[in-house]
Recover the amino acids of this structure.
């Protein structure tokens, strides 16, 4: 938008030039005589993607869709056939020109090579830390809109939370707990795509700011959604600090490595997939339909001049306002790819189109992607290039936050609070003008906005253009030394649009309309030079890696808004006078440079040791502390190499690692600065400090982590066990605790305190049954993490790092050994002992002046912990000939969820529990004397409370409002068992062996979130009220008036030509 894109243009032109060269080179025929043949599995089907190498050389090809291959090889040489999960086959050529091979599965070698830091492939047995990966077939088995959701339940130590059921909503991924208490750190892992860092932030333009923190008005998309899942070949999750140390500061929360698909030698392959999905709301709030709109005062007088539902019984229709509001959602998802290559060149091209309509009317999400990957070999030099473009857009609605200081609110909040005695669909009069329930009785700003007005009249949308690209060159100096140089580029611009129609229930100054346009330009450029050495010395295999990297990031945020349209119906800034138009721009720049090294040593196949070190220089830290170094050490010992071979324990390894990782500060955290001058209605009203004060004395955060683990396989690999214990401490927290506002700031950035995480992970995989036609695979992942805060500065008792407050309950991090994912709030006070301490499970105190339970009035009370005690997943796959059935259960044990939606509907008299309104009893002890005390309030009676007469109807209403003030009434330690996905597929490929056009055909029927067994009484317990990208402790485990989670069925076809 406003950022100069000279560098962008240069990168695009250069990349396209490389693409053109690679494509031309791919068509060049090989000059040498070939050995050819076909590779099949033991069922007789073609073995696709098998590596065929000439032993002792780097010459190799991969089998095509027919299992066929052709390769140059000396007549006296040997061909090596290998594939993940298959037994390696060595075949002497003996001057033959045709060699056919049958491959057999070998459970002992499943996933033997894994992708680690900087994209380096290593043997799993050599790793001193835990790594798990997912291949393309597992990712696409039940394809998700957001690829992050594909990891749910499949990787130990990874916690996935989907924001809501809204179209285009984001998801949060946390690995081994959060490590930062800062509101600007979302604690999510670094994403790396084909060796280039890939931004996964959640731009949230259009949200409001309250008291220095962000209030999310709707859910937004995280940027990894820009990737087409069909393009992904493999995802590797690096969990610990040792696994990710070489990536530097940004990898302190783990790394997700994504490798996209490449072409292979052989004829051109065309793959086309098409999917249709239908979704519906899983569980919406249940609202009582017995009592209608109305309210009683202290004297017992009734009025229907209210939107609350404390009125009389409904005589007519009790409208199903929630049920009639939502609609069925649809997804049309199409993707095509073309790939191929020759001996020295390969290419992969893809395009996709994704169109989703949401369950909320007038909401949708669409995405179009294009990708190119190419590679060219010139003797010792290999050059690769990749580029991807994504165009996405979302039409959404405000869900929970207030509309610009008016009485109106978001669509979901209005819907769930609408009395069932009124038809919510009536939002217009017959003449098309706005229908107001209390027109003439109150100001427009005091109205509760009708949800149909919000979704039909008020617009909220965004649009994303994204380009990513990379060029890499590897030169094999010798057979034991190579040099790699890589340049990567990532850029996107977001454009958001918010329109508040004239006549909306907002503050008076905006009642003639408001228009806002803004967005964000993001650019990231990196270069990486790496020298890699690997050489065998007798029984020792030694390796070394040294490298240098630079990073440059720029983010420009723009905002242009105005209000009060001069001519109705004309939506443009030209229809707003200059005095009512405002513009702001903020630019954030950051640079980082790093050098790193790695030393590797292996003794036979028994012992492995890896040492790493990295030093970074960051522009965001003061000059005296910009440079910081952090090392790691890891090792593994394969003890079964020293034991006699046996039929029980096939493989055994223990591993250990220790690592430090430094984290720099956010840009400009060292500075104090002023906001831009402010004007209202053309009048200058002044300027002021930023909410957050800076510090010139900041030092990096330092994360120290150690990990112990063991991996064992039994019965020739039919049963596998992987266990990990980890302990992580992040010191020098770059956090911003709240200050007294008399200091001139609300927050101050400084180093203080620590965050601790420790936990265990268990992964069990087995093949209980295997025969020629049938196979059953099962994987169980379990993990538990405990996150706490260490000792912080004196006076820092709580961290409120996000404006997640529902009534008296807040998401908070509690220092000095308290919960990282804590909840604070009000509650009913229990009776006290002689030392003035509350008695656990004692009777509640009653305040004689109110006749109701005594409620604390300080929201600093700890009332819950949102962190689960355990999460896990059970994945099953059954194959019978060409039919495959798979299903995934995920589970959660413990962890509190606050049901803010039920709190809200209880306040309004709409929750089913408020049907108890003929008589309520308040029983406990006096808050004054401690003596037993009890009151019973009945409808139709009058009572003397604090020397005043109050009706029974009024006291019953007050009882339920008091009930809502007690946070414990809406907090549930939640367990669930969820059928996350179910998939049934059939491969028709064997039926098309005789055809030349169709090389493969498969059909899939799948479903997601079909049911959840849980003790939680609210909507779906997988909730995050403020969505992905929320900093610090986030908003996981807080349920408040969101779009309900959806369930869906999908039918798909996949063709290969």
């Amino acid at each position: 938008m406003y950022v100069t894109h000279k560098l962008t243009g240069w990168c695009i032109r250069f990349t396209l030039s490389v693409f053109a060269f690679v494509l031309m080179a791919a068509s060049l025929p090989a000059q040498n005589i070939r050995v050819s043949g076909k590779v099949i599995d033991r069922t007789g089907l073609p073995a696709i993607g098998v590596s065929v190498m000439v032993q002792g050389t780097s010459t190799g090809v991969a089998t095509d869709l027919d299992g066929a291959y052709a390769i140059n090889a000396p007549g006296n040489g040997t061909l090596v056939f290998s594939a993940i999960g298959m037994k390696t086959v060595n075949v002497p050529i003996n001057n033959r020109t045709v060699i056919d091979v049958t491959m057999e599965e070998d459970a002992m070698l499943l996933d033997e090579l894994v992708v680690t830091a900087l994209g380096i492939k290593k043997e799993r047995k050599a790793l001193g830390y835990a790594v798990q990966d997912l291949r393309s077939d597992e990712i696409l088995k039940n394809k998700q809109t957001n690829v992050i959701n594909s990891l749910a339940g499949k990787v130990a130590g990874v916690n996935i939370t989907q924001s809501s059921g809204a179209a285009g909503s984001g998801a949060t991924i946390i690995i081994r707990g959060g490590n930062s208490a800062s509101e600007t750190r979302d604690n999510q892992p670094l994403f790396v795509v084909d060796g280039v860092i890939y931004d996964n932030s959640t731009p949230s333009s259009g949200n409001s700011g309250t008291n220095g923190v962000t209030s999310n008005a709707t859910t937004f998309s995280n940027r990894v959604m820009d990737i087409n899942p069909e393009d992904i070949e493999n995802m590797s999750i690096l969990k610990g600090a040792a696994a990710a140390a070489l990536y530097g500061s940004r990898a302190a929360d783990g790394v997700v490595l994504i490798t996209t698909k490449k072409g292979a030698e052989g004829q051109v392959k065309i793959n086309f997939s098409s999917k249709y999905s239908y979704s519906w709301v899983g569980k919406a709030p249940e609202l009582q339909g017995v009592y209608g709109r109305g309210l009683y005062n202290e004297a017992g007088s009734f009025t229907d001049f209210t939107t609350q539902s404390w009125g009389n019984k409904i005589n007519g229709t009790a409208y199903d306002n929630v049920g009639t509001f939502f609609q069925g959602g649809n997804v049309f998802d199409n993707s095509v790819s073309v790939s191929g290559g020759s001996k020295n060149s390969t290419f992969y091209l893809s395009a996709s189109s994704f169109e989703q309509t949401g369950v909320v009317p007038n909401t949708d999400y669409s995405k179009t992607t294009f990708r190119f990957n190419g590679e060219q070999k010139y003797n010792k030099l290999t050059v690769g290039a990749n580029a991807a473009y994504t165009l996405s857009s979302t039409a959404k609605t405000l869900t929970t936050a207030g509309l610009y200081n008016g009485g109106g609110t978001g669509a979901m909040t209005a819907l769930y609070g609408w009395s069932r005695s009124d038809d919510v669909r009536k939002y217009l009069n017959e003449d098309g003008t706005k229908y107001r329930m209390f027109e003439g009785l109150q100001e427009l700003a005091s109205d509760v906005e009708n949800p149909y007005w919000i979704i039909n009249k008020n617009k909220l949308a965004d649009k994303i253009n994204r380009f990513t690209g990379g060029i890499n060159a590897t030169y094999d100096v010798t057979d034991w030394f190579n040099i790699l140089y890589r340049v990567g580029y990532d850029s996107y611009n977001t454009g958001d649009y918010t329109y508040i129609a004239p006549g909306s229930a907002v503050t008076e100054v905006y009642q003639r309309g408001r228009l806002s346009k803004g967005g964000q330009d993001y650019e990231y450029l990196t270069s990486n030079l790496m020298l890699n050495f690997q050489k065998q010395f007798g029984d020792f295999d030694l390796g070394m890696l040294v490298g240098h990297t630079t990073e440059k990031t720029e983010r420009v945020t723009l905002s242009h808004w105005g209000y009060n349209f001069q001519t109705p119906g004309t939506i443009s800034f030209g229809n707003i006078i200059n005095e009512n138009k405002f513009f702001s721009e903020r630019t954030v720049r950051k640079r980082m440079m790093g050098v790193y090294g790695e030393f590797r040593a292996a003794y036979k196949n028994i012992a492995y040791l890896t040492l790493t070190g990295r030093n970074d220089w960051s522009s965001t830290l003061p000059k005296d502390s910009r440079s910081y170094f952090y090392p790691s050490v890891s090792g593994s010992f394969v003890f079964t190499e020293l034991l006699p071979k046996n039929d029980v324990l096939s493989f055994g390894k223990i591993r250990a690692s220790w690592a430090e990782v430094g984290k720099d500060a956010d840009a400009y955290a060292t500075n104090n600065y002023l906001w831009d001058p402010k004007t209202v209605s053309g009048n200058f009203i002044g300027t002021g400090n930023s909410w957050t004060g800076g510090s010139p004395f900041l030092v990096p955060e330092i994360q120290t982590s150690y990990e112990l683990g063991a991996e064992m396989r039994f019965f020739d690999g039919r049963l596998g066990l992987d266990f990990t214990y980890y302990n992580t401490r992040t010191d020098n927290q770059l956090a911003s605790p709240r200050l007294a506002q008399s200091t001139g700031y609300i927050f101050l950035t400084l180093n203080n305190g620590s965050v601790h995480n420790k936990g265990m992970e268990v992964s069990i995989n087995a093949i209980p049954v295997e025969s020629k036609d049938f196979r059953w695979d099962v994987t169980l992942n379990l993990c538990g993490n405990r996150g706490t805060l260490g000792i912080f500065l004196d006076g820092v008792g709580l961290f409120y790092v996000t404006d997640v407050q529902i009534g008296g309950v807040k998401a908070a991090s509690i220092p000095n050994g308290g919960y990282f994912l804590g909840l604070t709030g009000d509650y009913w006070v229990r009776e006290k002992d002689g030392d003035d301490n509350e008695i656990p499970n004692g009777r509640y105190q009653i305040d004689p002046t109110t006749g109701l339970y005594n409620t604390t009035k300080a929201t600093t009370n700890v009332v819950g912990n949102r962190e689960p005690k355990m999460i896990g997943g059970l994945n099953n796959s059954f194959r019978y000939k060409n039919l495959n059935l798979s299903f995934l259960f995920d589970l959660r044990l413990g962890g509190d969820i606050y049901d803010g939606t039920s709190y809200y509907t209880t306040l309004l008299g709409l929750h089913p529990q408020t049907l108890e309104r003929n008589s309520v009893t308040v029983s406990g002890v006096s808050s004054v004397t401690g003596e037993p005390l009890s009151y019973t309030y009945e409808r139709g009676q009058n009572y003397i409370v604090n020397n005043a007469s109050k009706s029974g109807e009024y006291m019953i209403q007050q009882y339920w409002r008091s009930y809502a003030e007690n946070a414990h009434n809406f907090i549930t330690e939640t367990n669930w068992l969820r059928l996350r996905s179910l998939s049934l597929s059939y491969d028709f490929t064997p039926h098309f062996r005789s055809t030349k056009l169709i090389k493969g055909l498969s059909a899939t029927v799948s479903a997601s979130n079909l049911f959840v067994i849980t003790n939680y009484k609210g909507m779906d317990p997988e909730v995050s009220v403020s969505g992905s990208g929320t900093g610090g402790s986030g908003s996981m485990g807080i349920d408040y008036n969101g779009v309900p989670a959806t369930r869906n069925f999908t039918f798909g076809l996949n063709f290969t030509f």
